[in-house]
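Format notes (please read before filing issues)

Several people have asked whether sequences and structure tokens are stored in separate files. They are not. Every record keeps both together, in the order shown below: the sequence lines, then the token lines. Line labels are part of the format and must not be stripped during preprocessing.
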Amino acid sequence: MKKIKYIVTVFLSGMLLVATSCRDDMAKINSNPSQVTDANISYLFAQSVISFEPSGYLLWFYNAAMTYKWGQMGVPTGGFTSTYTQTTATGDQGSQYIAVLKYARDIENIRNNIDPAEAAKYANIAACVDILTVYLGIFDSDMYGDRPFTEAARARYGGTLTPKYDKVTDLYDLWLVTLDKAATTLTTSKDQIFPPNQDVVYKGDVAKWAKLANSMKLKIASRLISQDKTKALSIATQVASAPMGVLDGSADDFLFNKANAITKDDGDKVYHWNNGFLESTASSQRVVDFMLKNKDPRVRFFYRKNSWNSTIVQGFFDQGKAVPAYILDNVNYTETGGKKTFVSWKGMGEPWVRYYGLPVEMDAAQNPAVYGDYFDYSNRSKLKIGDAEKTYTPFSGFQQEMIIGRYDFTLPTLPGGPVIQDLDNNPWYGMYMSTAEVNLYLAEFKLLGANLPKTASEYFNKALRASVEEYDRLAELNKIPYYGKTYDYDPNEKVIDLQNGEIDAMLANADYQLTGNTALDLEKIYIQQLLHFTLFPNDQFVTVRRSGCPKSSSTLIEWENFTSVPNNAIPRRFEVGSPSPTDLMYQILIDAYQSQGFTPGSSQDGTLLNSERVWQDINAPQFGQGPK
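Then the structure lines:
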């Protein structure tokens, strides 16, 4: 295996816990802070970026599977049943921010113990680490509420081992101030030390970091809508008028890969990970059909093609076996003497005809007469030729290679046919905030009454165009299956790359235009936020929760009201476990839960997790209710 180095060549985990075997290597780093050389702070910054992780494996394995189905933006592969609201293990406990906050504390301590003039040279680096910390703080408080922050990660510098829990409302105020200070610092500081090679995000371009800080205030504003709408709109107005501007174009987007090759067997930093995820969760029929109806190219980047290329269809024809009806509806074929021959795809053709979601209806998998082609696919989509047998998934799952860089892809071929695989490991690129997200927020706030310089339609149109372009770029960078190649197996296969004119065709649809009907326009904006956040399960669920979309009786993407599971029985946060009496934080945890109205324990039911809400979710609409 080729052995290459991280972009970040120095690891500073020893700043926190130093193993005996590392003492010699880390001796300089663990010396008196007043003797630390200038470069170490920049290394700490680089390590904070490496440690920045809002979407790790466990989040995708556990959390996403829950939030997709709770928000009806994904469907269990076994269909919805009355037990779908039950919680599972969670992939995090709301403490992702600590991984970066501890480096912020290290930098703070070093700067406090060196000459003030020298410390001032690292103001920009400290500001950037603060931005990363705030991002993760917002993320972690979304599903768990109050967090230890102001007293957290200070124990090694004389602070407490039992930090207090800060209220979400106070944290939002603190983080808004932090982002303002960061943006000001990044646009005014002089004589700074900020090596571009230690910044894999913006290569030391502090103007872009300042735009990110200003833009992130919109994430907080969006979470204030149900609790303090006036303040949310005021924040939006301030963001739009701030001199540093907002993320505006691909060069500004918070999109990067952490490293391009591995050392020390830590490939997760390069490739994200290599485990499977969402194996039991697929796309929603209502979401996919909405995107196909409106010729939305992002359907090809969010979801995988199903296994039914034209060669597979012909294989089923040749064996006299039925093709799933909804797939056959998209096939032009001839029939002579009882033998069917594939001629072409109908309608939009390849690649569009390869995307199908699963029905949302309750207990659909228990109704094979109607839904058997979707859920009984292990029998109906199984083909045997000679001694070889394969099963072909007729629906679309989530696009794994948009999330991990070493996920192996095997092309669907006929039983006994060639084995065609893509086993390449590609450094993974993640997108964390973008021009599209910023403009979707601004479109929302404009409709809600914020004093912004452009119309809601201008923000909306810019957001949609940017979103498609961003995901096309991400698909290319991550080299997902069918991007730029068809594998030369099926003559009717088409690439999934964005084609000329597709964005304009998408924007020409009424569902993708604001027309002056405020209620419907607001719903359209929320639907587009949900779509843009398809590969951001946390942000997507927060949007479902605060908007009430998908909406019951919608003409866009309709929420299904299950008679066996009322909407107020669907969880709106993750459960919090009962702390152990031997835990140093025991009483602090008990008090924090009590002050938020949380009942700690395991296996909590959905009704409890719906009624006992995190602060920012109080007063938000119920699932399916639509915007208030």
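For reference, the curators noted about this record: The longest strand covers residues 339-345. Confidence is low (pLDDT under 50) at residues 1-39.
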